[in-house]
Amino acid sequence: MTSHGSSGPNEPHDIDPFTVTDDVALVARMRASYDSLPSPDAAQIARCTTAVLSEAMHAPARRLGGSRRPRWWWGAAAAAALVVSVSTVAIRRGRTTAEMPGGVQPVGATTERGDTTRFDLTLPSTAREVALVGDFNGWDERATPMVRRPNDGAWSAAVPLPPGRHMYAFVVDGKKWLVDPLAPQVLDKGYGPANAVVVDGP
Amino acid sequence: MRPHATTSLWLALQLLSATMASPLAAATLVVTTRGDTTHATVSIDTILFRDPQGQFDAARFDTLTANALRLLFDDAASKGLPTAPLINRALEGAARRVSGARILSVVRAHAVALAGAKSALGDGSTVAELDAGADALRAGIDAKTLFVVRSTRPAGAAVTALVVLTDVVNRGVPISTARDAVITIARIPRSDDALLGLQSTVAKNAQRGPGMALEALNRYVRGTVSGAVSPSTPATSDRKPVRPPDS
Question: Which of A182, A189, A199 to mutate to test the interface with B (most CBs of B within 10 A)?
């Protein structure tokens, strides 16, 4: 700048910030000044980058609560908080839909026998109660409790279903909704996934 | 305030209170009744709101949500859409204990999708086909694909094809690939079991990655067409957990 007397060939000139009071005019003049400059060479870019990074990365830490703490510290803290929060949400969502603690998935099966469809669910956890909910019982978790088979520990329920497509899900211990991860699913963005079973006509 | 403005305001408030009070009283009665019995509950609202295709238990919603849902159901019925799928979605939301606003949003979106499915699949489609078609549209499958899949099956027999198509797309298979695979198998007579076998194959392999699912799908379709995989493969079988590949 002209006021500092040591202007080089690649530095803006003819701008005195102390004489320019209009911000718009100042910006316009600075842009015009920079536009008229030749492109910097690689050495200049490297020099500027080194100077900026050394200032940012190696700035001495101020005392706690100081107003001029290094900015990279805040950026790193924000990034760490973001990673933790996203991971927590992802883990929670996975557990509420399909996975059980330990990363093991439930295994389900549907079997048609005459007019009745049997739903089986094998859970790798020690659930106290499991209910079958679906459009056939008004999604009422008290309507169709599943019974635990003594031989293999699988939960089972049989319900008469008319031909057509039926949506269903499992409710574990009255609060956790599960779907069979391998059965046909209906992914509703508003609610969450549910399974679908098609019952053949006569 | 001028006298006639005051009168207008009073009349408006009276109308509003009359509108709000009636369903509120009905819901209160229903709650009382539900407390006395277990599952044989007959709600007042269910009696008042007779629907030929389903029953709407308004007691499971707050008053404002129930009234808004009624309007949605009436609007859908006036357009010739089945209301049973909409009632089903509303009840599902109540069971999941989501907010009334979200229930309304989901039911409204499903009503729009049902209208699109009816337009794509035709008036002769069953309620199950329309419901499955609506889910397909909401999964991002276009109406033309629905029409093509529908045309491969006789009336009322496209439910499984639509369910499998939606599921396979949801598991990461590109729509065009899924459509071609489903159409290829759906053209084979009595191939519902084969379609469900396709779904099962894709579901198992999708856990290993989208590429594995795609490869398994192509392999399954080739095997079905060549006869290596029987179209009457059992649709339901004991499924084993899929173990992720060792790295």
Answer: A182
What is the domain count for chain A?
A: 2
Q: Are B84 and B54 in contact (CB under 8 A)?
A: yes
Residue at token pair 């084993």: B240
Residue A111 sits in a domain whose CATH number is: 2.60.40.10
Token pair 């100077």 is at which residue? A51
Q: Give yes or no for A116 touching B (CB within 8 A).
A: no
Distance of CA A55 to the CA centre of its chain: 34
Instruction: Tell me which chain B residues have a C-beta less than 8 angstroms from the C-beta of A111.
Output: 236
Cβ-Cβ contacts under 8 Å for A57 (sequence gap 6 or more): A70, A72
Q: Determine the structural domain holding residue A117 and report its residue range.
A: 107-199
Among residues B62, B60, B63, B58, the alpha carbon closest in space to that of B73 is found at B58
ipTM exceeding 0.85, yes/no: no
pLDDT tens, chain A, 202 aa long: 333 444 444 444 455 545 545 577 777 777 777 666 667 677 777 776 667 666 555 544 444 444 555 566 677 777 777 766 655 444 343 333 344 444 557 788 888 888 899 999 998 777 899 999 999 999 999 999 999 988 888 999 999 998 889 999 999 999 899 999 899 998 887 898 899 988 876 5
